[in-house]
Amino acid sequence: MQAHEFGPSSAMPLERSPTGFEFDQPSASVGTVLAGVSQPVIRGFIIHLDRARDRMPQVERLAAKLSVQSEVIEAVDGRTLTAAEIESVYRPRLQKPYYPFAMSTGEIACFLSHRKAWAAIVEQGIDAGLVFEDDVEIDDAFHAAFAAAKACLKPGSFIRFPFRMGKEHGRCVLSQGETNVIQPVRIGLGMVAQLVSRDAANRLLVATSVFDRPVDTTIQMSWFTHVSPLAVLPGGVREIFPQLGGSTIKSHKTLAERLFREVLRPLYRAKIALRARRMI
Q1: Assessment of whether the complete model's pTM goes beyond 0.70
Q2: Is the separation of the CB atoms in 11 and 45 below 8 Å?
Q3: Which residue from 24, 42, 23, 29 is spatially nearest to 146, judged by alpha carbons?
Q4: What is the pLDDT of residue 252?
Q5: Is 221 exposed, middle or buried (0-12, 13-18, 19+ CB in 10 A)?
Q6: Going by C-beta distance under 8 Å and a sequence separation of 6 or more, which residues neighbour residue 41?
Q7: Residue 174 and residue 152 in contact, taking contact as beta carbons nearer than 8 Å
């Protein structure tokens, strides 16, 4: 079984990746100054599982729509993780409130894949990374959302592009036309698209060398990560995994397991919400 190195070296520029795709976007290289004004250096990172080859055309379409140079992050494959690799990063019941469910190998691999994206941001020394999962489509609202997110970008920023409307509420920190950036009272779930500053990426890497719950629920714990996410509304993104053959991380659960989760999930979320309100 293949061993994995969970370091930043697996962030592959598309122009150099084995896929053969090259996406040249009109973006600044490291250290470039545009029109005499210093601009933040932002690169796109699209997390893509190599064996999900039917998704590569979607990766190509997504990269072509972005205004920043993009790279593929080769996702960690949960099917090839060894027991030793899992034990080295996953420890249940590390942080309170305790996460009530065991993580699946797909969820562990997903977390490791996002860590690879954060590591690439830090290694490359760029100001921020625009991180996408490969089952995302952007719409016309995304360009305004991205512009608003860039206006809020500073060291420590982690700015989410939610795909569910009406789920997050909080103080508005920026309003540009129909687009608002908020400090959510309770951070939403999902990791489909985020603008991650280098400082935030570094903090997340330090905090999550070992983890006990999925990556999106970890991001909700700003008291632990020392990263306080913002959210752009509307986010201008939507999940399209049903059109791409379904999720690559969800596992089949029995009826009893589903009922168990239905009982414990709202209790856990209430604990997270209570702790989040104390941080405000």
Answers
A1: yes
A2: yes
A3: 42
A4: 67
A5: buried
A6: 28, 29, 30, 31, 32, 126, 127, 128
A7: yes
